[in-house]
Amino acid sequence: GLPVEGIIKLLVTAIGILASVVAAYPSGFGQLQHVGDILYATVYLFFAISGLVDVLTFYCPYAIPYGLNHFSLALAFTIEGLMFCLHLQRQAFMEQHVHVLLVCAIFACAVVSLIEIVLPYSLLMKFARAFSSLIHGSWYIQSGFILYDPNRVTPTQWNSSQDYNNALIWISLTFAWHAAGAFICLLVIILIS
Amino acid sequence: FAGYVLPGAAFVAFGLKWTLDAST
Predict the structure, then answer these.
(1) Measured between CA atoms, how close is A39 to chain B, in angstroms?
(2) Which of A25, A50, A68, A129 is the most buried (most CB within 10 A)?
(3) Closest-CA residue in chain A for B6?
(4) SS3 per-residue string spanning A59-112
(5) pLDDT single digits (tens) A99-108
(6) Which of A16, A134, A149 is closest, CB to CB, to B15?
Protein backbone atom coordinates (compact mmCIF):
# COMPACT_ATOMS: atom_id res chain seq x y z
CA GLY A 1 0.00 0.00 0.00
CA LEU A 2 3.02 2.31 -0.02
CA PRO A 3 5.62 3.23 -2.67
CA VAL A 4 8.32 1.59 -0.55
CA GLU A 5 11.09 1.79 -3.16
CA GLY A 6 10.53 5.49 -3.79
CA ILE A 7 10.35 6.32 -0.08
CA ILE A 8 13.56 4.38 0.64
CA LYS A 9 15.30 6.17 -2.25
CA LEU A 10 14.21 9.55 -0.86
CA LEU A 11 15.33 8.70 2.69
CA VAL A 12 18.71 7.24 1.68
CA THR A 13 19.51 10.08 -0.71
CA ALA A 14 18.46 12.70 1.87
CA ILE A 15 20.99 11.19 4.30
CA GLY A 16 23.58 11.07 1.49
CA ILE A 17 23.03 14.71 0.48
CA LEU A 18 23.21 15.90 4.10
CA ALA A 19 26.38 13.89 4.81
CA SER A 20 28.04 15.11 1.58
CA VAL A 21 27.21 18.77 2.19
CA VAL A 22 28.44 18.57 5.81
CA ALA A 23 31.66 16.89 4.59
CA ALA A 24 32.11 19.60 1.92
CA TYR A 25 31.91 22.40 4.51
CA PRO A 26 33.87 21.09 7.53
CA SER A 27 34.57 24.62 8.85
CA GLY A 28 31.09 26.06 8.36
CA PHE A 29 29.05 27.10 5.36
CA GLY A 30 31.26 30.05 4.48
CA GLN A 31 34.18 27.95 3.26
CA LEU A 32 33.82 25.20 0.68
CA GLN A 33 36.80 22.85 1.18
CA HIS A 34 35.90 19.59 -0.60
CA VAL A 35 34.18 20.23 -3.91
CA GLY A 36 34.27 16.46 -4.55
CA ASP A 37 31.63 16.02 -1.86
CA ILE A 38 29.33 18.46 -3.69
CA LEU A 39 29.75 16.12 -6.67
CA TYR A 40 28.48 13.21 -4.55
CA ALA A 41 25.57 15.36 -3.30
CA THR A 42 24.65 16.08 -6.94
CA VAL A 43 24.63 12.36 -7.74
CA TYR A 44 22.37 11.74 -4.71
CA LEU A 45 20.10 14.57 -5.88
CA PHE A 46 19.34 12.75 -9.16
CA PHE A 47 18.54 9.50 -7.31
CA ALA A 48 16.28 11.56 -5.01
CA ILE A 49 14.48 12.87 -8.13
CA SER A 50 14.11 9.25 -9.27
CA GLY A 51 12.59 8.36 -5.87
CA LEU A 52 10.24 11.33 -6.09
CA VAL A 53 9.08 10.21 -9.56
CA ASP A 54 8.49 6.70 -8.13
CA VAL A 55 6.31 8.14 -5.36
CA LEU A 56 4.40 10.42 -7.77
CA THR A 57 3.90 7.52 -10.21
CA PHE A 58 2.39 5.50 -7.36
CA TYR A 59 -0.04 8.21 -6.20
CA CYS A 60 -0.79 9.95 -9.53
CA PRO A 61 -0.40 7.21 -12.18
CA TYR A 62 -2.49 9.13 -14.75
CA ALA A 63 -0.67 12.43 -14.32
CA ILE A 64 2.87 11.08 -14.71
CA PRO A 65 3.83 10.07 -18.26
CA TYR A 66 4.33 6.36 -18.74
CA GLY A 67 7.96 5.26 -18.36
CA LEU A 68 9.08 8.45 -16.60
CA ASN A 69 10.23 6.39 -13.59
CA HIS A 70 12.58 4.37 -15.82
CA PHE A 71 13.74 7.56 -17.53
CA SER A 72 14.51 9.29 -14.23
CA LEU A 73 16.44 6.21 -13.04
CA ALA A 74 18.40 6.11 -16.31
CA LEU A 75 19.12 9.83 -15.95
CA ALA A 76 20.41 9.31 -12.39
CA PHE A 77 22.73 6.49 -13.50
CA THR A 78 23.94 8.53 -16.50
CA ILE A 79 24.76 11.55 -14.33
CA GLU A 80 26.52 9.26 -11.84
CA GLY A 81 28.57 7.73 -14.67
CA LEU A 82 29.48 11.17 -16.03
CA MET A 83 30.49 12.40 -12.56
CA PHE A 84 32.76 9.37 -12.08
CA CYS A 85 34.28 9.99 -15.52
CA LEU A 86 35.52 13.27 -14.04
CA HIS A 87 37.36 11.22 -11.41
CA LEU A 88 39.54 9.80 -14.16
CA GLN A 89 41.53 12.98 -14.66
CA ARG A 90 44.72 13.63 -12.71
CA GLN A 91 44.67 10.28 -10.97
CA ALA A 92 47.12 7.42 -10.74
CA PHE A 93 46.56 4.78 -13.39
CA MET A 94 45.35 2.24 -10.82
CA GLU A 95 42.64 4.60 -9.56
CA GLN A 96 41.67 5.29 -13.17
CA HIS A 97 41.44 1.55 -13.82
CA VAL A 98 39.15 1.00 -10.81
CA HIS A 99 36.94 3.92 -11.82
CA VAL A 100 36.74 2.86 -15.49
CA LEU A 101 35.36 -0.51 -14.39
CA LEU A 102 32.94 1.27 -12.02
CA VAL A 103 31.79 3.57 -14.84
CA CYS A 104 31.20 0.51 -17.08
CA ALA A 105 28.88 -0.98 -14.42
CA ILE A 106 27.10 2.37 -13.94
CA PHE A 107 26.50 2.90 -17.67
CA ALA A 108 25.25 -0.71 -17.93
CA CYS A 109 22.58 0.24 -15.34
CA ALA A 110 21.76 3.39 -17.35
CA VAL A 111 21.45 1.54 -20.68
CA VAL A 112 19.21 -1.19 -19.20
CA SER A 113 16.97 1.43 -17.55
CA LEU A 114 16.67 3.25 -20.89
CA ILE A 115 15.74 0.02 -22.71
CA GLU A 116 13.08 -0.60 -20.03
CA ILE A 117 11.28 2.57 -21.17
CA VAL A 118 10.39 0.81 -24.43
CA LEU A 119 10.24 -2.73 -22.93
CA PRO A 120 8.58 -2.13 -19.53
CA TYR A 121 7.26 -5.68 -19.13
CA SER A 122 10.40 -7.52 -20.25
CA LEU A 123 11.43 -9.92 -17.50
CA LEU A 124 14.90 -10.19 -19.04
CA MET A 125 15.40 -6.43 -18.72
CA LYS A 126 14.27 -6.52 -15.08
CA PHE A 127 16.89 -9.19 -14.37
CA ALA A 128 19.47 -7.24 -16.39
CA ARG A 129 18.76 -4.16 -14.23
CA ALA A 130 19.09 -6.24 -11.05
CA PHE A 131 22.31 -7.85 -12.32
CA SER A 132 23.96 -4.58 -13.34
CA SER A 133 22.92 -2.98 -10.04
CA LEU A 134 24.46 -5.89 -8.12
CA ILE A 135 27.78 -5.51 -9.98
CA HIS A 136 27.63 -1.74 -9.58
CA GLY A 137 27.11 -2.02 -5.81
CA SER A 138 29.59 -4.80 -5.16
CA TRP A 139 32.30 -3.09 -7.27
CA TYR A 140 31.58 0.19 -5.49
CA ILE A 141 32.33 -1.57 -2.16
CA GLN A 142 35.42 -3.25 -3.63
CA SER A 143 36.65 0.13 -4.95
CA GLY A 144 36.48 1.51 -1.42
CA PHE A 145 38.66 -1.34 -0.18
CA ILE A 146 41.14 -1.01 -3.08
CA LEU A 147 41.52 2.78 -2.94
CA TYR A 148 40.84 3.67 0.71
CA ASP A 149 41.40 0.48 2.71
CA PRO A 150 41.10 1.52 6.40
CA ASN A 151 43.47 -1.33 7.42
CA ARG A 152 46.31 -0.01 5.23
CA VAL A 153 48.54 2.33 7.22
CA THR A 154 51.17 3.26 4.61
CA PRO A 155 50.71 3.64 0.83
CA THR A 156 51.56 0.55 -1.20
CA GLN A 157 55.14 0.55 -2.53
CA TRP A 158 55.69 -1.10 -5.93
CA ASN A 159 58.98 -2.97 -6.37
CA SER A 160 58.78 -3.06 -10.16
CA SER A 161 56.53 -2.11 -13.06
CA GLN A 162 55.74 -5.82 -13.42
CA ASP A 163 54.27 -5.85 -9.90
CA TYR A 164 52.16 -2.83 -10.81
CA ASN A 165 50.96 -4.48 -14.02
CA ASN A 166 50.10 -7.64 -12.10
CA ALA A 167 48.07 -5.58 -9.63
CA LEU A 168 46.12 -4.06 -12.53
CA ILE A 169 45.42 -7.55 -13.90
CA TRP A 170 44.24 -8.63 -10.44
CA ILE A 171 41.84 -5.69 -10.37
CA SER A 172 40.38 -6.70 -13.76
CA LEU A 173 40.09 -10.30 -12.57
CA THR A 174 38.35 -9.20 -9.37
CA PHE A 175 35.80 -7.26 -11.43
CA ALA A 176 35.14 -10.35 -13.56
CA TRP A 177 34.65 -12.42 -10.39
CA HIS A 178 32.21 -9.83 -9.08
CA ALA A 179 30.24 -10.25 -12.32
CA ALA A 180 30.28 -14.04 -11.86
CA GLY A 181 29.22 -13.71 -8.22
CA ALA A 182 26.37 -11.35 -9.11
CA PHE A 183 25.12 -13.74 -11.80
CA ILE A 184 25.28 -16.77 -9.49
CA CYS A 185 23.48 -14.76 -6.79
CA LEU A 186 20.78 -13.90 -9.36
CA LEU A 187 20.40 -17.56 -10.40
CA VAL A 188 20.16 -18.75 -6.77
CA ILE A 189 17.41 -16.22 -5.97
CA ILE A 190 15.52 -17.17 -9.15
CA LEU A 191 15.74 -20.89 -8.29
CA ILE A 192 14.67 -20.36 -4.66
CA SER A 193 11.77 -18.14 -5.76
CA PHE B 1 36.02 4.79 2.47
CA ALA B 2 32.45 5.08 3.79
CA GLY B 3 31.57 7.18 0.72
CA TYR B 4 32.19 4.10 -1.40
CA VAL B 5 31.00 1.27 0.87
CA LEU B 6 27.65 2.73 1.97
CA PRO B 7 26.30 3.66 -1.50
CA GLY B 8 27.64 0.31 -2.73
CA ALA B 9 25.64 -1.51 -0.07
CA ALA B 10 22.54 0.47 -1.11
CA PHE B 11 22.96 -0.53 -4.76
CA VAL B 12 23.47 -4.19 -3.77
CA ALA B 13 20.28 -4.01 -1.66
CA PHE B 14 18.35 -2.53 -4.60
CA GLY B 15 19.80 -5.19 -6.92
CA LEU B 16 18.61 -7.95 -4.56
CA LYS B 17 15.17 -6.33 -4.25
CA TRP B 18 14.82 -6.01 -8.03
CA THR B 19 15.87 -9.65 -8.43
CA LEU B 20 13.20 -10.72 -5.93
CA ASP B 21 10.60 -8.49 -7.62
CA ALA B 22 11.38 -9.96 -11.03
CA SER B 23 11.45 -13.58 -9.87
CA THR B 24 8.20 -13.57 -7.86
Answers:
(1) 12
(2) A129
(3) A141
(4) HCCCCCCCCHHHHHHHHHHHHHHHHHHHCCCCCCHHHHHHHHHHHHHHHHHHHH
(5) 999 999 999 9
(6) A134
Confirm if A33 and A24 have CB atoms less than 8 A apart. yes
Per residue in A127-184, pLDDT (tens digit) is 999 999 999 999 999 999 888 877 777 777 767 777 778 888 899 999 999 999 999 9
| Alpha-carbon distance A114 to nearest alpha carbon in chain B (angstroms) | 16
**B chain contacts of residue A149, beta-carbon cutoff 8 Å:** 1
A109 near A132, Cβ under 8 Å?
yes
**Cβ–Cβ under 8 Å, residues A17 and A59:** no
Contact B20 A193 (CB under 8 A): yes
